[in-house]
Amino acid sequence: MTVRWFAQIAPGPSRIIVAGLISVLAAGCSKASPPPEPPPVERTQPSGDTAGTVTGKAVNSSPDSRAIVVLEPRAAGEFPVPADPAVMDQQGLTFIPGLLLVRQGQAVMFRNSEDVLHNVRVGEAGTAQPVFNVATVPGNSYTYKFDRPGFYTVGCDVHETMHADIFVTSAPYAMVADESGAFTFSGVRPGSYTLAMYAGGQRVERPVDVAASRVEVSIGGP
């Protein structure tokens, strides 16, 4: 089943987009012989001895938030954007997850999994510049691709207590450190990187060279 989306922009300053869903069923046909060869396996990162592990601790000066840690390649290279969409759900009058990490150009599905009408209002953090505002009817979703890195705020005008954040990055390796600040990136291509930490509204960075199978590093702190 192939899923296609259509959207209608209503007039007026609010620019609410009512999203609808079209499902198209494609019937397959069988061939007697020979069977088709399987498609090549797409690898987004190296495996085996060519891949390394970067592990360490992000020292976060803001105890009320967890640090976001990213590895940014310093040399040009191909790091394919994930084909599967990232998902932010609306369930129990809550955005799940409350913080979503997304690759630049990756599709993001905003899904309504309950029988309550919601909307999704997204804006750029800091500037409050609106990005889009869509209605998500029960059981449906809306898909969007962010073309600019940065932080974005998410809200629901129908339920003003619903809030979430999205971090869009061009880096192929990104994660949220655990409560102790620990992080681990596995399957990292050898090369030179900038290790960056986002915490408390600040960005801290340091260079990291991945040449061995395992690299330990810390970032942040006094």
Radius of gyration: 21 Å
pLDDT averaged residue by residue: 81
The helix fraction, in percent, is: under 10%
Q: What is the SS-derived class? A: mainly beta
Q: Kindly report the spatial arrangement of strands forming the biggest sheet.
A: 1-2-10-9-12-13-7
What attributes characterize this protein structure?
222 residues; mainly beta; Immunoglobulin-like; seven-stranded mixed sheet; four-stranded antiparallel sheet; 18 strands; 0% helix
What can you tell me about this protein's structure?
The strands form 4 sheets. The protein has a 7-stranded mixed sheet with strand order 1-2-10-9-12-13-7, with no helix packed on it. A 4-stranded antiparallel sheet has the order 14-4-16-17, with no helix packed on it. The termini are far apart. It is an all-beta fold and 222 residues long. Mean pLDDT is 81; it is low at 1-49. It is built from no helices and 18 strands.
What is the secondary structure topology, with strand pairs?
Layout: E1 2-9, E2 16-24, E3 52-59, E4 68-73, E5 86-91, E6 94-96, E7 99-103, E8 107-112, E9 118-124, E10 130-136, E11 141-145, E12 150-155, E13 163-169, E14 173-176, E15 182-188, E16 191-199, E17 202-210, E18 214-220
Parallel strand pairs: 2-10, 3-18, 5-8, 7-13
Antiparallel strand pairs: 1-2, 3-15, 4-14, 4-16, 5-6, 8-11, 9-10, 9-12, 12-13, 16-17
Question: Can you describe this structure in just a few lines?
Answer:
The protein is an all-beta fold.
